């Protein structure tokens, strides 16, 4: 298939040597089976974990039980700055972005500006890097015995290809990108119970539902209805017993099988431009009347653009208007350009929307994740656009 004089490596070893020469190396580090330690530095010569005494290797073999692949960041940064075109883009936030008092980039946010005011030496070098830690939950410093094992304290010397010079590169952790459970693992904050909101903390207003922990994946069911009986509200939705069977009256947002089919068929027929999202048709099961295989980006596309259209003809007007307002809120908060002057109105908008949703959805729907939407406006105001 390739010309006879092609220069591609013929062996995997040769290909790895090419990658190693451009700084794309990796390290394999043995790990305790229970994730207690990494067998490196002072633990490099041990054959079992000093904390749980588990063997480092598979029984009667020299093969490690667990291996972590570590991709060093410093060689990659050096390689990034070596290329003139890439190096030029590394200072775009200081030299190329639009400055019109709107939130387009984290550099427009108060958090970025406050850091620059407090650490003027770091801010003076526009080539310094501000990392965002994306993780599913980990502690980068083990038991907190070391606070700088992942980056040299005084920076690293890097060649800057755009200006043909060397400079000392420093970095800081600007923020984190993770889901809420990972936030709890990363920060050590308890994300369960009455103080689950890290912003409201002890000032959180909450109601403990007796049966909510048994609802499973659904937000509606016999247990959710028993909570209504216990709270003495919305008696029209209380379970109704007829003989040996118990019936649940439909709520304003309950979909019949016919309505579910109409919703799924509406999404099934959607066609979007290439690269806009996944093939929506492949995510809809008309047999089971469910959505499946959704990725994070697909959820954003559905929430911000498609759901308002799909529910318009199948739900009561007051319900689909409330849901549509929530969808428009997320579309606004995730837009690429945000006017800070409009954020107070957006805060009032989401407050009113959540109040409207409380009129139509059961109390079991309003868990900590729904509550956190009330904090998004302030977080955007402080840290910049959410789409990044």
From TrEMBL:
Against Pfam families, the record matches this protein to: DUF4218, Transposase_21
InterPro entries assigned:
DUF4218 (IPR025452), Transposase_21 (IPR004242)
Residue ranges of the DUF4218 domain?
333-386
**Organism's domain of life?**
Eukaryota
Entries under PANTHER family matching the protein: OS08G0208400 PROTEIN (PTHR10775), TRANSPOSON, EN_SPM-LIKE, TRANSPOSASE-ASSOCIATED DOMAIN PROTEIN-RELATED (PTHR10775:SF180)
| Protein name stated in the entry | Uncharacterized protein LOC113859807
Q: Which organism encodes this protein?
A: Abrus precatorius (Indian licorice)
**What gene codes for this chain?**
LOC113859807
